[in-house]
Amino acid sequence: MLRLFLLVFSFFALFFLTLYGTKALNAQTPSNKSSLVITWKSGSFFPANFTGKAPATPFSPIIASVEAVSGGKILNLSRAAISWKIDNKPIGNGAGMKNVSFRVQKNKGDFHILSVSVSQNDSVSEDSVIIPIYPQIIVVELPFKDNTISPGVENAIKAVPYFFNIDSIKNISFFWQINNENKGGGNNDTLILKTGEPQLQSQETVEITASAQNNNNPLEFAKSRVWLKISR
């Protein structure tokens, strides 16, 4: 009986020693995996005074990069095997390939999932980010108090496009309407509103519509509508 007791005791002692000893060893052994930091930026156009981050828009070029951090230090990835995927489709791989570029291939309201895998020193780290896709926009600037203008006065109204895939604003065509009446198009981003014109003399409000289109890609189009009061 004593021999059986000692045998059973030894078995359970060995079992618990193996179980909790392994857990303790794993808890004390630090993981050699590094944390990845993915950043990206859009190459779409925006005015010089815009201080935010340009969003991804349809057709916009995206440049992404990755850094690996371990113990509060940025690691040298020059020899690391790095592979990139967009929506689970490979877009690039190679030693030290910290940067990758691609174009947005989806419509506004959708998103891309950008993933990266970094293999170095027998350790593999992976991470991904979601890149939401926004539309191009056009902003009609109204430098008038309470959006109110005086009758019989010429007023300059400017349209500013954001996040189109252009090198210069010269690649944008503008189209203007006053109360749904076409007022021409071209490269002029400014409309001269003459409230003294006969069709506006009796009105208390006026509707202005501005549209912008990429000359190199007609699918890039934006429209904005505003209303002005005419003081009487």
From TrEMBL:
Name this polypeptide is given: Uncharacterized protein
Species assigned in the record: Candidatus Jorgensenbacteria bacterium GW2011_GWA2_45_9
Lineage, uppermost ranks: Bacteria, Candidatus Joergenseniibacteriota
